[in-house]
Amino acid sequence: MAKAKYVFLFGDRKAEGNAKMKNLLGGKGANLAEMNLIGVPVPPGFTITTEICTIYNEKGRDYAVDLIKEDVIKAVVHVENIMGMKFGDQENPLLVSVRSGARASMPGMMDTVLNLGLNDKAVEGIAKKSNNPRFAWDSYRRFVQMYGDVVLGMKPESKESQDPFEVIIEEIKDKRGIQLDTQLTAGDLKELVHLFKTAVKKQTGHSFPNDPWEQLWGAIMAVFDSWMNERAILYRKLNKIPEEWGTAVSVQAMVFGNMGDTSATGVAFTRDAATGENIFNGEYLINAQGEDVVAGIRTPQQITHEGSLRWAKLTNVSEHERVSKYPSLEETMPDVYKDLYDTQEKLEKHYRDMQDMEFTIQDGKLWLLQTRTGKRTGAAMVKIALDMLHENIVTKDEAIMRVEPGKLDELLHPVFDDEAIKNAKVVSKGLPASPGAATGQIVFYADDAEKWASAGKKVILVRIETSPEDLKGMNSAEGILTARGGMTSHAAVVARGMGKCCVSGAGSIKIDYKARSLKMDGNVYKEGDFISLNGSTGEVYDGMLKTVNPEMSGYFGKLMKLADKKAKLYVRTNADTPHDAQVARAFGAQGIGLCRTEHMFFGGHKIIAMREMILAENEEDRRKALEKLLPIQRNDFEGIFEAMKGLPVTVRLLDPPLHEFVPHDEKGQKEMADVMGISVEAIKAKVEELKEFNPMLGHRGCRLGNTYPEITETQTRAIIEAVLNLKKKKIKTYPEIMVPLTGNLVEMQMQEKIIRATVEKVFEERNDKIDYLVGTMIEVPRAALTADKIAKSAEFFSFGTNDLTQMTFGYSRDDAGKFLPVYIEKGILKNDPFQILDQEGVGQLVEMAVKKGRKTRKKIKLGICGEHGGEPSSIEFCHRAGLHYVSCSPYRVPIARLATAQAAIMNKRSWKKHNK
Amino acid sequence: MAKAKYVFLFGDRKAEGNAKMKNLLGGKGANLAEMNLIGVPVPPGFTITTEICTIYNEKGRDYAVDLIKEDVIKAVVHVENIMGMKFGDQENPLLVSVRSGARASMPGMMDTVLNLGLNDKAVEGIAKKSNNPRFAWDSYRRFVQMYGDVVLGMKPESKESQDPFEVIIEEIKDKRGIQLDTQLTAGDLKELVHLFKTAVKKQTGHSFPNDPWEQLWGAIMAVFDSWMNERAILYRKLNKIPEEWGTAVSVQAMVFGNMGDTSATGVAFTRDAATGENIFNGEYLINAQGEDVVAGIRTPQQITHEGSLRWAKLTNVSEHERVSKYPSLEETMPDVYKDLYDTQEKLEKHYRDMQDMEFTIQDGKLWLLQTRTGKRTGAAMVKIALDMLHENIVTKDEAIMRVEPGKLDELLHPVFDDEAIKNAKVVSKGLPASPGAATGQIVFYADDAEKWASAGKKVILVRIETSPEDLKGMNSAEGILTARGGMTSHAAVVARGMGKCCVSGAGSIKIDYKARSLKMDGNVYKEGDFISLNGSTGEVYDGMLKTVNPEMSGYFGKLMKLADKKAKLYVRTNADTPHDAQVARAFGAQGIGLCRTEHMFFGGHKIIAMREMILAENEEDRRKALEKLLPIQRNDFEGIFEAMKGLPVTVRLLDPPLHEFVPHDEKGQKEMADVMGISVEAIKAKVEELKEFNPMLGHRGCRLGNTYPEITETQTRAIIEAVLNLKKKKIKTYPEIMVPLTGNLVEMQMQEKIIRATVEKVFEERNDKIDYLVGTMIEVPRAALTADKIAKSAEFFSFGTNDLTQMTFGYSRDDAGKFLPVYIEKGILKNDPFQILDQEGVGQLVEMAVKKGRKTRKKIKLGICGEHGGEPSSIEFCHRAGLHYVSCSPYRVPIARLATAQAAIMNKRSWKKHNK
Asked: How many angstroms separate the first and last alpha carbons of chain A?
C-alpha cells in the first residue's frame, strides 16, 4: 500500500490539491490550492490534511507528528525556496501563519497563529532587512501575544477580567501617556515582548519557545486542539457539522499588512452578504494584520468609494472626516484596488458563487490569503441565487440548490409594522449587519442572554464587541447590538450565519458593563429595559415595537414558483384552526395533511361537554354528551374546510387519552364538580381511573374509537355534515377521515365500518353526498410491519413520524430530555431523531410500509404529517421513499416547498422509479 | 361452480364423510361416518356441516335453511329407508336425536335434543309397536322437557330456583307419594307431558310444536345457536378455539337405552382417563338415556367386573349391595359386554389413541353413538403416549406430539407432603375423578368461587353435582368436590379437561345450599372452612395440608428424555436467585437466559445504598454508593453462578428507571430522609425529578449505563469478581453480560467498551481470566431494524419480547387492561400478544433481527427471554426463526422442553435450512 499523503504543497501558481479536495484539505486549504491554479497571488505554503486531525485526536500527538514530520520539513523547504527566505534564519527569516480550515467554514471558532518563526535573533534580521524596526518588533509582539494565547493558554482569569497581555499593554500606554497602539515605539514594543515573555514564564512555568520548529509544532497541534474547544463544539452542534470531519491546518508564508502605510489588510465580498445586491464590498485597515479587521478594535474603512460614502451616511460621518480618517481603498491605493477588483471578479466567476475573501497588501502588492463561499443572510441567499440564474451563471436547478431551506426561516420572521415604525423613536444607528426585526430586553452578558431566554424572556444582547465566547448567548438572543465593529466584525458575520438580527458598530452608544447600563441618545438604559433593532437599516428604537408577518413576494415569491415547478411532492400543512389554515395557504400549502380534532374539545362549554362524555358510565350518557359536542365540532370543521376550499383536508379522529381532558389539580377538580353537579370524590375517582402508567402506549387513538364507537360516529357526522353544509354554499371540499394509532387490520376495519355507516346515514338524511377518503396514520411500528394488510381497509397512509419515532426508539419525547442531550453530545445519536427523521431505523419502517401498502393498494395516497414533514433532509427521504406529500406547520411550508424541489433535483431518477 | 355440499349422509356401513373431515363435519360427525366405514354399529343419520353454522350466524336462519332444506328432506328419507320407519308417522314413527359437534370436543357446552319426532299421535304408535306405553310416554316426557329447555327456552327463573319441569315432576311425585322417577306410571308420564306443554304455553306464549319438521328445524337451529351461548364462548376462550370454526349438527335415528331392563346406555374409555392405565373402563345405566349417565342423577354402574369391584371398595359398598344394586355390564349382559369390548379394541386400534365412547344398548343390541379421542389428565396423557410407544402403536415423534405441553403444567403442580398425609384426617371419600392435590376454603356457588378467587383466596367448589353453568367457577377453584356423579360425570370430565383436582360422587357428604354448609364425617363445615382434596385417591381431608413440589421421575422423566433428543433448541430459565436457578435446573434448564439484577437492589441495606447512588449529585458520590453495592452484588452473583455451574448464565445489567427504587408515599419518603440524614424536601425533589410521563420509554436500560457509566462498571466488576472467585473453587461458569434496551450500534459499543475495559482491569488485578460474552437484548423495534449494525458489537442477541411487544404494538402492558380485553372480545386481536407471541408483527422484527444479525456475525448466539419463551406456539416460532435457545420461568421449563421437541418434529426441514 502506498503511504497516505498527509501534506499538500501550494505556491507559485502550482498546487498538489484543488478546490474539490475540501474534505481532505478543508475549505481554506482547498481554495488556497485552487487560487494558485487559477493564477491568483497567494503566499506559498502547505496544508496538513484533516485525517491527521482525526489521527491526532484518536492516537495522540506523538503518533500524528511521526506520520508527517518528514513531509512538513520538506514542505517548509519548498516554501523557503519560493520565498527565497529561510525558516529560523537570523538574517532573512521566513515567517509563517498557521491556520485552521475545516470542510465547512467555522469562522472564528478555531485558532490561528501569525508571524511564527520569530525569535530574539530573527526579529533583528527582519528589522534590518525591512529597515523598519518598529514593524519587526510589532510583529514579534503580536506573535508572542497570539502564541501565548493560543498555544500556551495565556487566557484571562475570568470572564470579567482582562486579557493578561492587554493589561501589560495598558500599563505601558499609561506609563508613556499614550492612547493608541500605533503610538508605541519600537522600543516600547521590544519592552512589551520582554514583559510578555516574563508573564508567560510566570503564569505557565515555562519559557517562551525560541526554536521556530518548536513554535511550529506547538502551533499545528494547538490548531488541531482547537477543533475540540468548547465554542467549536457548540458551533458544530448548531450547524450540524460532524466531529469526525476534523480540521486541516494550513501553514503559509507570512505577508504583512502592517509594514507601514503602503501595507494593509482586509476582507471583501463579491456581493452584499446582507441584502444579496451585486455590489463588490468590503473593509480594510492600513498598516494592520488580519485579525484587526475582524476583531472590531479599530474602525475599518470601506474598500469601494461608493461603499465608503454609504457608510459615512449611515454612521453620520462627514465627508471631510471620511476622506481624512476613513478613505476607501479605491481612493488610497487605486492600483491595488484595481487588482483586487479584478481578482474578486475572477474568483466569483471561477467559483460561480458569492465569495468572501481575505487579502493583505504588503508594500503595495496584493496577496489573497483566503477565498470561500460567502456566508449570507436568507434574503441575500435567495437574491443571489436568482440573480445568478438571470446572469446565466447558474442553472435553475443550481439556483434552487443554492438556497438552504432552513435559511428561508429568516424571511418568514416578522418585520416591524409600518405604523409602529412611523411613531417609533430612533435612539441610535449602527450598521445593518444582519437583517430582521428584533424586540427584547437588554442584557450585557452572553450567559445572561442564555438564562433569560431559557426563562422565556426575549432579549437583545448588547456588547461593545462580541467574541467567540459569546456564541451561545448570541444564539439565545433575539438580536445583537454592538458599539464597535464593521460589517465583517465577529458579531456581524456570526449573526448573519445564525439568521439573527444584528446592528453593529453603533458608535454613539456607551456601554458600562459594571453598571449593566448603556447610554444612548442621552438616556440611560438599564439591563431589562426594552429596545428594538432593525437589522436591515441599522436603526435602534426605544421600547417594544409591533411586528407583522412578512409577505411572500419579490425574490422569495419567484424562488417558490421556481421550486414548485421542480417539486414532485405536494406540501400540505398541519392546521387545527381556520387561522392556521389561512396562514399556511398564504405560504402556499396545498391542503391540510393533519387537522387534529382534540383542540376542538378545549375551552369553555366544549370542555364541559367533553367531560360529561368522559364521566358517562354508559353508552347512552356518552351519546347525550356527544350530541352537545356535535354542533360545536361541525362548526369548527366548516371553518377549516372553508379556509382550505378546493384542497384536501385530512381530519384525524380523537387521539389523546381521555386523561388529558380532565383537571388534575384540586382546584380544577372542584370547579369541574360544581359545574357537573357531582361530588369532587366522583371526579377524583374518574381522574384516578383514567390515569395511566404510560399514556403514550395506553388507551388512546383508535383504541378509544373502537371501545367507544359513538365517539367515532359523532366526529364523522360532524365532518360530513360540515362538508355537506359547505357544498350547499358551492364550496368545494375534499375530506379525508384519518384513523389514528392503527396497528392491526381488524382495528382499522372496525373504524372504517363505523365511519362508512355513519357517512351513509348522513348522506341519506341530507339526500346529498360527496366524495371522501378513509385512511389511517402509520405511527405504530406494527402498522408499518403489517401495512399490506392495513391497506386493505385504508385508502391513504399518513406517516405520524413523531409517535413512530417514539415507539421505534422506545423514547418518550416528554422524558428523553434526561438522556437525549447526553446521547447527542457523546455521539450515540448524530441528531435529535424528533427533529431529523432517523432514516436508518424509522425510515426502514416508512419504506416498508410504502412498499407493502402499494402492493395491496396500488394507488394508495401516501403522506407524512409528523414534524419531520418540514425538515429538509427528512423531506428528501420522503421523496425517495415515494410519498405524495409532506405536511408541516404553516411557517415551515415555504421551507418544505423548497426542500421538495431540491429533493426532486437530487433524485431525479429514483422518484420516477418509485412512482411508476 | 358445483353447489357446495352441506349435508353428509351415513348409515348401514356406508358414509359420505370420514374421520379426516372434522373441520367440516365436526368431531362427532366425522367419527360417526368413520365408524360406519369400519363396521361399527351406528344408528344411521346425517351431518349438517360447520359451514352452515357460520352462514347461519352471518346471514341468519332463513338464508341457512334455504341452502339445506332440500338436502335435509332427502337425508331424512335416507334414514327412514335404512330404519324402515317414517318421520312423523303415526304407526311407525322415526325418532331422531339432534346433536352438536365442533372440530374440537367441547363436552356439555352445546345443546342436544333427543327423541325428536314425537307428538301426541306418534307416541301412541310407539307405545303400540314397542308394546311398552310407559317407555313411549317416558320418551315423550323427556323430549318435551329437553326440547322445552333447549329450543323453547324453558329455563329456571334464577340460579337458585329449580328447573320448571322438575318442579312439576316433584309435584306429581309428591301427589303419588313416590320418590323415584322410575316409579312413575305411563299415566303419570302422560299427565306430565300435558302439564309440561301447559307450562310451555304459559311461559312462552306459544304452543309446543306438534309438527316433527317444525321440531327438527327448531332443534337444528337451537344447536347452531348454542355455539354462541355464554358457556360455549367461555370454553372456547379457555381452550383457544376460534369462533369461526362453528359447530356441525348431526341428526341420527334414535336408539333407546330406556326400553326396559334389556336396554342400557353408557360411556366407556379404552384406557383410564385419570391415570392413563391401559384398562378398559366406563359406566352405564340400565333403562336410561345417555344424559342420565353424564348428569350424575343416578349412580352409574361400572362396565367391567374388575372396575366394579374397585369402585365398590372406593365407595365402601359391600359386595352384596354391589351385586344386587350396582352389578357390572360384564355381569348383567355378558354378550353385549363382549361386543362392546371388541368394539373398543377395534376403535382404539383404528384411531391409534385412547377413545371416549358413548353407547346405547337397545333391547340387547349394542349401538355406538359416538367415539372421540378421550380427554385425559396430564399424567394420563404422558403415560398413554409412552405406553402406546412401547406397544408400537405410535412412533416416537407421534408420542411426543400426543402430549399437549400446556397439560404438563398439571404434573408440576404440588402434591401433598407425605408426612402431612400421614397425620391428616380423612373426612370423606369419593371417586378419584381428576388427580392432584387441592387445599382451600369451601364455597358452594360457582360465582362465589370466582369472586373469592379473584380476591386472592384459594377455594374448593363443593356441589351436589355440577352443570355447564358452573364452568367459570370450576376454573377459578383449586379443586372440585361433588356429592353425586361418577367418573364420567360433568364434574369429572370437565375437571380432567381443566387439569383441576376433582373428587366426585362423595356420597357421604350432605350439602345444604341454603345454609351454605355441608355435613361430613358427622361435622358441619361452613362456607369458608378449609378442606383438602386428593384427586388421585378420592380422599377428602379436614383443614389445610402441606404440599411439596413433584419429582421429575417416572413417565414424565422418560418423556422429557425423549423430547430432549428431538429438540433443537435449548431451554434456559429466567432466574434471579439461586433458589429459582436450582428449581429450574431440577426441571432440566440448560442455563439462565435472563438473570435480572434489579431485584438485587431491593431490601434492607441494599436499597439504602441504591438510594444513596440515586441521590448522588455527581459521579464521585455515585461511585461511593456503588462501592457499597459491589460486595452485595458480587455475593448474589456467586450464588447464582454456583447454582448454575457448568452452564451459561446471562446477566442483564440494570434495566428499570431509577424512579422504581425511591419511595413514592409520604411515609416512605420520611423514612428515607431519616436514614439518609437529609430533608424530606430533598427526597421529594429527587422523586419528582425522577418522575416520568412514560417510564417505559424513559431513562432506563443502557440509557442509564451510558449516562452513568459507573453503574455498568460496578455491575461488570461484581460479575467478573464473582466468577473469578468461583474459578478458584474449581467451579465452572460461563458468564454472558447482557446490555438492556439497546437501539443503536454506538449505544451498544459504548457499553461494550465500558464492560471490556472493566473486565480487563479485574483480570489484571486478579491475574486471572475467564471467557465471557457481551451481548444485548433486542427489545426496542429499532434494535431489530438495525440488528446488522448492532451485531458488530454484540456477541449474542436475546429477544426481550415483552418490551418488544409493548413498543411494536404501542401497548403499555400496565395500561392495556382498558382495551385489550375488549379487543380480544371483539376479535381485533386473536390472542393477548403478551401471552402468545404476535408472529405477524413482532415476529417479523424477530426474524429480521435474526437474519441481519447472522449476516454480520455468522455465529451470533440467539435466544428469547420474554415470557413467550415458555409458550408452545411461540417456541415453535422461535424454532422456525432459527434461535438457539428459549428461556422461561422455572416451572415452565419442562413445558418448553416438550414444546421444543414438538417444534423440531413439526419443522424438521425448516430448522436445518435456518441453521446452515
From this structure: 46
> In 3-state terms, chain B is what percent helix, strand and coil (to 5)?
50, 15, 30
Cα-flanking dihedrals φ and ψ of residue A343, to 5°? -60, -45
Chain B residues in contact with A826 (beta carbon < 8 A): 706, 750
Distance from CA of A24 to the nearest CA of B (A): 25
Q: What is the pLDDT of residues B255-294, one digit of tens each?
A: 999 888 999 999 999 999 988 999 999 999 998 877 777 6
For residue A152, give the C-alpha cell.
Answer: 500556551
Average pLDDT of the residues in B188-212: 94
ipTM for this prediction: 0.81
Average pLDDT of B1-13?
A: 86
The yes-or-no verdict on residue A173 having pLDDT over 60 is yes
**Element housing A504 (H / E):** strand A501-504
Nearest by CB to residue A698, choosing from B815, B822, B838, is B815
Q: Strand (E) positions, B422-565? A: 426-429, 431-434, 437-443, 459-463, 479-482, 501-504, 510-512, 517-520, 523-526, 530-534, 539-542, 547-548
- Catalytic (active site) residue A865: yes
Distance, in Å, from the CA atom of A264 to the CA atom of A332, rounded to the nearest integer, reads: 11
- Which of B659, B828, B839, B845 is the best substitution to test chain A (most A C-beta atoms within 10 A)? B828
Give the pLDDT of residue A636.
93
pLDDT tens digit string along B345-393? 999 999 999 999 999 999 999 999 999 999 888 889 999 999 999 999 9
Average the pLDDT over B172-185 and give the result.
85
Q: Tell whether the model's pLDDT for residue A655 goes beyond 90.
A: yes
Cα–Cα distance for residue pair A628/A621, rounded to 1 Å = 11
**Angle between the N-to-C axes of helices A133-150 and A186-204, in degrees from 0 to 180, rounded to the nearest 10:** 20
The Cα of B223 is separated from the nearest Cα of chain A by a number of Å equal to 29
Residues of chain A contacting residue B827, judged by C-beta atoms under 8 Å apart: 746
Partners of B826 on chain A (C-beta within 8 Å) are 706, 750
DSSP B658-718: GGGGS--SHHHHHHHHHHHTS-HHHHHHHHHHH--SSGGGSS-THHHHHHSHHHHHHHHHH
Q: Which of A614, A776, A785 to mutate to test the interface with B (most CBs of B within 10 A)?
A: A785
Q: Cell match 436568507: residue?
A: A378
- Cα–Cα distance, B471 to B238 (Å, whole number): 10
Identify the residue among A688, A750, A786, A815 best suited for mutation to test binding to B, counting B beta carbons within 10 A and taking the highest. A815
CA B443 to chain centre: 22
Question: 3-state secondary structure string, B106-162?
Answer: CCCCCCEEEEECCCHHHHHHHHHHHCCHHHHHHHHHHHHHHHHHHCCCCCCCCCCCC
- Strands A547-548, A426-429: parallel, antiparallel or unpaired by DSSP? unpaired
Per the listing, cell 387441592 goes with B438
Residue with cell 351461548: B229
Closest CB to B707 among A811, A819, A841:
A819
- Residue B590 and residue B650 in contact, taking contact as beta carbons nearer than 8 Å: no
Closest approach of A656 to chain B, Cα-based (Å): 13
> In DSSP terms, which residues pair with B482 in a beta bridge?
B463
Tens digit of each residue's pLDDT (9 = 90 or more) over A833-869: 998 999 999 999 999 999 999 999 999 999 999 889 9
| A490: annotated active-site residue | yes
Question: Exposure of A518 by Cβ count < 10 A (0-12 exposed, 13-18 middle, 19+ buried)?
Answer: buried
The H or E element containing residue B878 is helix B872-881
Q: What is the pLDDT of residue B13?
A: 93
Least CB-CB distance to A706: which of B741, B785, B828? B828
Non-local CB neighbours of A320 within 8 Å, separated by 6+ positions: none
| Residue A109, min C-alpha distance to chain B (Å) | 28
Give the integer Cα–Cα distance in Å for A747 and B782. 24
